[in-house]
Write a structure and sequence with these properties.
The structure holds 2 protein chains of 2 kinds. By secondary structure, chain A is an alpha/beta fold. Chain A is 32% helix and 29% strand. Chain A folds into 2 domains: 218 residues, Rossmann fold (3-Layer(aba) Sandwich), CATH 3.40.50.300; 65 residues, Protein-tyrosine phosphatase receptor IA-2 ectodomain (Alpha-Beta Plaits), CATH 3.30.70.2470. In chain A, the strands form 3 sheets. Chain A has a 6-stranded mixed β-sheet, sandwiched between helices. In chain A, strands 2-1-4-5 form a 4-stranded antiparallel β-sheet, covered by helices on one side. In chain A, strands 12-13-11-14 form a 4-stranded antiparallel β-sheet, with helices on one face. In chain A, a hairpin with a 2-residue loop joins strand 9 and strand 10. The longest helix of chain B is centred in the middle third of the chain and has 34 residues. Chain B has one domain. Chains A and B meet through helix 2 and helix 4 of A and helix 1 and helix 6 of B. The complex binds adenosine-5'-triphosphate (ATP) and magnesium ion (MG). The site of adenosine-5'-triphosphate has 12 residues of chain A, from strand 2 and helix 1.
């Protein structure tokens, strides 16, 4: 759906994007994460056809962004980082205005449907100038999906929302996927990204440092650490035995639970089980530590 | 196009732009005849004690025509400033505040956006200018006497409106260069004064939009200008070219920038 190769963008003397590669597949939810100033918004602005790349290839839905005449030649909905509205129009008037454009016209009833979905129904006749930041954000998302595009590019869609609103947005993003749409969104709230994304891309200083499916990522970043819960209180003797087994790096006891860190090359669960069986220890459960996206993110962009 | 026109109308009404312009035109239309009939003679009388009625009326053209000429010069000196500053943000502000980003993403055509602005405010300026002129005509007629026909007054209103349309198109063009409404306003005013100066100094008014103002004065003085047709044609071409350049500049713009 989106193919970006060697994308560069310079502002005067500052190179915001330094050869970025990015790939979003049809029908997936792609989480775009990176530190402040990494170049997320710059990239999304180019993908939405609003600004031109200095160099590099950008294909959006099979169309080269450098070939388009106007932004709307691309079939996508875009939520800018800071969506701006006419303060003197009401929410309803704003959507009516945006909904009526020569190329795509919306069906009657669509605006009401969108306003209800966006939770703006009761404020639809209020001027947008009086809206809170979160309400404007909701209206921005409403306008992005107004034309029912196949691809959505959302720049921090949940940033200004309350917990309920964030939940709603994540719900919608998931719903969009079920409708066969592709979503690219950026966020600083890694928990949100973890909850809905199929794949993620981590950008740092204008370059993609990591692009993987969330599953692969968890797998490749699995730590060789197990939490083993024992039936009874762990004896010092048992601990000594485990510690001296081949493949165990260190152990630590927290009440009934022993944290066992394995050596590289011995991280498989079978090795651990063998050790436990050999020592005739009764256990209640074993779980391998899962890295959070935050752990991965911090590890990947560390020092960049 | 229809929704763009509605949007511009709402903007004109809800940001009070229409109101400011209409109010200022009417203010001068009503004030100028009063000034001429009552305040100015009184002032002169107080300043120069010995002056009698006859010599005062020699100094001031106390007639409907005189009042209209006075109104026209007020309009040129102050009215244009108000018009320019009321409308200088039309594009400059939209560009600065990124309010065009969502419309552009939603598939709005720049031609339709710029065209609607030009259309709505041109019609408004023509109406406002003609209305001001007619009010001034009626008021001056009541205060002095009716000695001109209404028809030339309507034509004058149109010509003044045309000149303001020229200012409007300039303000939109300069708005694509300067993101600041005030700066755009000063640039538009400066440029229009420059044109007026060139027209006067080189006797080129016929070929410049300022010729519309000179032509209007000519009509009032019963000196029909043979070349007014040329001036009008050139004015239309100029507004078209300026708007086309504005459009091209917008089409090559990058949006949502800081
Ligand atoms: N118009 C501009 N002129 C100069 N520099 C710019 C411009 N736009 C962006 N930049 C720079 O490009 C870099 C990337 O900016 P960008 O907005 O893409 O970051 P981001 O990843 O979206 O950050 P955030 O998470 O804070 O939204 C920043 O260092 C920014 O200062
Ligand atoms: Mg950003």
């Amino acid at each position: 759906m989106i193919e970006v190769e060697g994308l560069k963008k310079s502002f005067k003397h500052f190179e915001a994007l330094q050869g970025l590669n990015l790939n979003v597949r049809q029908g997936e939810i792609y989480g775009f994460i990176g530190k402040n100033g990494a170049g997320k918004s710059t990239t999304m602005n180019i993908l939405a056809g609003l600004s031109k790349p200095t160099s590099g290839e950008c294909l959006v839905g099979g169309i080269k962004v450098s070939d388009i005449i106007q932004a709307s030649d691309l079939d996508l909905g875009y939520l800018p980082e800071d969506p701006k509205f006419y303060p003197w129009l009401s929410a309803c008037e704003t959507l009516t205005y945006l909904g009526d454009s020569g190329t795509h016209r919306i069906k009657p009833g669509r605006i009401q449907e969108i306003l209800e979905w966006g939770g703006l129904d009761k404020d639809k006749h209020r001027r947008v100038g009086t809206f809170s930041r979160g309400m404007k954000q909701r209206l921005g998302i409403c306008s992005a999906i107004l034309h029912d595009p196949g691809l959505l590019i959302l720049d921090e869609p949940s940033s200004a929302l309350d917990p309920q609103g964030r939940n709603d947005v994540l719900h919608l993003i998931k719903g969009l996927k079920d409708m066969g749409k592709t979503v690219l969104f950026s966020s600083h709230i890694l928990n949100d990204v973890e909850r809905v994304c199929d794949r993620i891309g981590i950008i740092a200083s204008g370059r993609m440092v990591l692009e993987k499916s969330l599953k692969d990522l968890e797998h490749s970043h699995l730590q060789p650490v197990y939490d083993v819960t024992f039936e009874e209180k762990i004896t010092e003797e048992a601990q000594k035995c485990i510690k001296s087994s081949i493949g165990v790096l260190s152990t630590e006891i927290k009440e009934q639970v022993m944290v066992i860190k394995m050596e590289d090359g011995h991280e498989s669960i079978l090795t651990l089980m063998q050790i436990l069986i050999d020592n005739n220890l009764k256990i209640v459960g074993v779980s391998r530590r899962k890295p959070t996206l935050e752990d991965i993110f911090i590890k990947e962009v560390h020092g960049l | 196009m229809k929704s763009d026109i509605i949007k511009e109308l709402r903007m004109g009404i809800r940001t009070s732009r229409f109101l400011v312009i209409i109010a200022s035109f009417l203010f001068f239309a009503i004030l100028t005849p009063i000034m001429m009939k009552y305040i100015l003679p009184q002032l002169l009388h107080n300043q120069f004690q010995g002056m009698n009625e006859a010599s005062i009326s020699q100094m001031i053209d106390m007639s409907q025509k005189g009042a209209l000429l006075g109104y026209m010069s007020d309009l040129f000196e102050i009215g244009t400033i108000i018009v320019v500053f009321a409308l200088s943000g039309l594009l400059a502000q939209e560009i600065k505040e990124n309010t065009l980003v969502l419309p552009i993403c939603s598939g709005k055509k720049l031609l339709s956006i710029v065209g609607s602005k030009l259309l709505v405010f041109s019609v408004f300026l023509i109406l406002a200018s003609t209305l001001g002129m007619v009010i001034s005509y009626l008021y001056a007629g009541i205060l002095f006497s009716f000695d001109i026909g209404l028809w030339p007054v309507l034509v004058i209103g149109l010509l003044y409106g045309g000149y303001m349309i020229f200012l409007l198109s300039l303000a939109m063009l300069f708005g694509t260069f300067i993101k600041n409404a005030i700066g755009t306003g000063f640039m538009t005013l400066g440029f229009s004064l420059f044109i007026y100066f060139i027209g006067s100094y080189f006797k080129l008014h016929t070929y410049l939009p300022s010729g519309l103002l000179i032509g209007a004065q000519g009509i009032l003085n019963n000196q029909a200008d043979q070349n007014l047709g040329i001036t009008l044609a050139l004015f239309l071409i100029m507004v078209f070219v300026i708007s086309k350049i504005t459009l091209i500049r917008l089409e090559n713009k990058e949006w949502n920038e800081r």
